[in-house]
Amino acid sequence: MGNCSNPLSHWTLLPNGAFHLHLNIFSGIFCSQSFTILCICPMVVLVLEVDGTWGDHQLSCLAEDSLHRDNQTRDIVWRKNGEEEAHGNSYQVRLVESLGGGNYTCHSKDWSVLNHTEVLIMQHQTNRRRILEKPEQDYLKCSAQNYSGEFHCSWTWHTSRVGKVAFIKHSVLPHGNFTCSVDKSGNSISCQDKQHCPFAEESQQIHVTVYVKTSQFLLESYSKLFFLSEIVKPDKVRIWKVNTTVVEWSYPSSWNTPYSYFPLTFQTFQVRGKCRECENPLKHRVKAVCVRAKDALCDSQWSEWSHVRLVLRRSRKSNKNRHLQNSVRKKENVLEL
After folding, report:
1. Is 26 helix (H, G, I), strand (E, B) or coil?
2. Less packed terminus of the chain by CB within 10 Å, N or C?
3. How far is Cα 106 from Cα 66, in angstroms, rounded to an integer?
4. Are 315 and 321 a contacting pair, CB within 8 Å?
5. 208: nearest Cα among 121, 126, 138
């Protein structure tokens, strides 16, 4: 007997929060005859939140007002993941622990698909995450190149459970016109707030929730709440001029203008070797110069390092006691060594 309290809740939506027509191909063997059914029908995603106890949930093939008074329901065939399961207009999805998810289709007598529902199982109030890994503080890592309203969020799949995005929820109050899409890599999304004004002060945080699923129809949600000013990360600065005494660079081309309203602050280091050593500058002869930038008005992320190796020309007269100073003097975007 199913537990009437399970599923605890359920909701229906379409993939990525929009309506899509899906081209479905069903193949199999019936009475020793192979068949392929080609149909175009809307696929609905049904999320069932469960607590691990036994339960069931009823699916309906056709609305009651669309059924005829004859025995049409007897001709309806239900299939789960392509396997025939039952007959009739309704079907009971059995819920056992985290099982019960799958592709449920109902067919007419001529095998036309009348309804297609993808059932995803979401476990209630569980702290265990199975699909994504948490390499740092958060499952989702978000960043923005500037204040245009566009940002990107990425994640790391679990080594043994690579899934895919089921749908995305996003919101910002009181205003916001968001569009989000999954990148080709499958492990990141790109979002754009078309109503965002870069000159306005942010008053409400952006709330992004990514729902991901496995091939076993297990669904998990991962959320992040932030201001753009908290995740903004400028692109690399461009170094224009280099010699033994001066390094000149410019703002990233993707950064907002005017620069007087969106100022950046810069950090420079003289190092030996690659810029991975920039955090601990050495006091020996300079081999490279590293430059990075961040928003001067917010405690946000630094850009990646831009670096240039210095070609030092030696002369007998000057090289005996000449050393490049470890301290630098910065005047706007010019570094004098």
Report:
1. strand
2. N
3. 15
4. no
5. 138
pLDDT at position 180 over 60: yes
Q: How far is CA 58 from the centre of its chain?
A: 32
Of 231, 250, 278, the residue that ends a domain is 231
Q: Which domain holds residue 115?
A: 9-123
User: 207 or 16: whose pLDDT is higher?
Assistant: 207
> How far apart are alpha carbons 279 and 172 in whole angstroms?
36
Sorted by sequence, the CB contacts under 8 Å of residue 288 that are 6+ apart come out as 270, 271, 272, 273, 274, 275, 307, 308, 309, 310
- Residue 258 sits in a domain of what CATH number? 2.60.40
Residue-wise DSSP of 216-265? T-EEEEEEEEE-HHHHB-PPPPEEEEE-SSEEEEE--TTS-S-TTTS-EE
Q: What is the pLDDT of residues 124-177, one digit of tens each?
A: 766 566 788 887 778 899 999 999 999 999 998 887 776 888 878 877 655 567
Residue 25 lies in a domain: yes
Q: Considering only 43-52, 54-63, 237-246, 260-269, which range has the smallest mean pLDDT? A: 237-246
CA 193 to chain CA centroid, nearest Å: 15
Higher-pLDDT residue of 116, 72:
116
3-state secondary structure of 277: helix
Angstrom CA distances, 319 to 82, 85, 99, 285, 295, stand at: 79, 86, 75, 11, 39
Q: What is the pLDDT of residue 37?
A: 40
Cα separation values, 61 from 2, 74, 230, Å: 21, 12, 47
One domain for residues 162 and 199: yes
* Confidence check: pLDDT of 16 > 50: no
Q: How far apart are CA 227 and CA 230, in angstroms?
A: 5
Report yes or no on 2 lying in a domain.
Answer: no
Q: Give the number of other CB atoms < 10 A from CB of residue 30.
A: 9
Average pLDDT value for the chain: 76
Are both 102 and 15 inside the same structural domain?
A: yes
